[in-house]
């Protein structure tokens, strides 16, 4: 069973009267790779800095191995940090930069022999795949190599936890991907806890055991990458993790939701009858079909080739559906769309208005015309409801 290492309890932080962390409760297990993920300004770095001891929370507690450490200074915590800017010493070579991590190590409180320093530095350089680079000038290294030196320096005194604040932010896309794999490997090789901060959802999903999605100083969801992607708890998480179509809905009964004036089968939800809900539909769960077979119909307004699929925008009475498909369609085509019940996710109504602005206005616009075009024509409730 996983063992608890760090516990954040009711953490709150404010700067200049502005609340930036609001009742953060989080348990981080020993050896876990946990990522704090969220948009800029949501409080990820502040949370990390509180764990590192660089920021004191306004209220709440930080526990390490069951001991409250609010008042323990950073250098006495068995935690090291890697930042986006590597801050290597340009006048020192790779070996000396990494060895510097040992010199500033005050946890162990003992002086190491030259031989011990050498063997620890070489061990770390091997772990970050920089064996043979000992005597290179750091300025002669690529961005990815420099970041690996910074990681080796942070790991050389064997902290229990490594804090990583957007460490790959300065690297280009290709290098980022390589370094993501490297970091996963280094995490496994070291067998310690990594707490990683990023606003890049792909990066978070690719590397982490646990993802903590934050927004506006609050934790929105904690889960495995699969849980966060497949079972987002609200419209914000669904939209932030991957792309989503988010529409206003009303529960008709368990397993049936009304959107745009039509009834759709959805997964059983347990929401009360008539409850207003957010209905979240992933673009890959929307199929393009013939107009006669469509649950809804609309006009293709935009197509973007994405390599493995096309992003197709379909305008439905002002609501822009995002559809990911390999079907060939053309701009201006009038098409039908179909959604499987298991692609229709029901979530508690939030005031989140989506990446693209206020989506609630789309259904309001639709309501005005719904009586004319979409009122079911004397169908029984059963017929009126679309089957997958
Ligand atoms: N020292 C500070 N003084 C004043 N405001 C601060 C300070 N540090 C952070 N903030 C504010 O707190 C909020 C949260 O900042 P934080 O750096 O934790 O967010 P973040 O999620 O890490 O964002 P980013 O990805 O942009 O770094 C922001 O509004 C930021 O401006």
Automatic annotation (TrEMBL):
Keywords: ATP-binding, Cell membrane, Membrane, Nucleotide-binding, Translocase, Transport. It holds the Pfam family TOBE_2. Its EC number is 7.6.2.11. SUPFAM superfamilies: MOP-like, P-loop containing nucleoside triphosphate hydrolases. It catalyses: ATP + H2O + polyamine-[polyamine-binding protein]Side 1 = ADP + phosphate + polyamineSide 2 + [polyamine-binding protein]Side 1. It comes from the Bacteria. Part of the ABC transporter complex PotABCD involved in spermidine/putrescine import. Responsible for energy coupling to the transport system. The complex is composed of two ATP-binding proteins (PotA), two transmembrane proteins (PotB and PotC) and a solute-binding protein (PotD). Belongs to the ABC transporter superfamily. Spermidine/putrescine importer (TC 3.A.1.11.1) family. PANTHER family: SPERMIDINE/PUTRESCINE IMPORT ATP-BINDING PROTEIN POTA, SPERMIDINE_PUTRESCINE IMPORT ATP-BINDING PROTEIN POTA. This is Spermidine/putrescine import ATP-binding protein PotA. The lineage of its organism: Bacteria, Bacillati, Bacillota, Clostridia, Eubacteriales. The gene is potA.
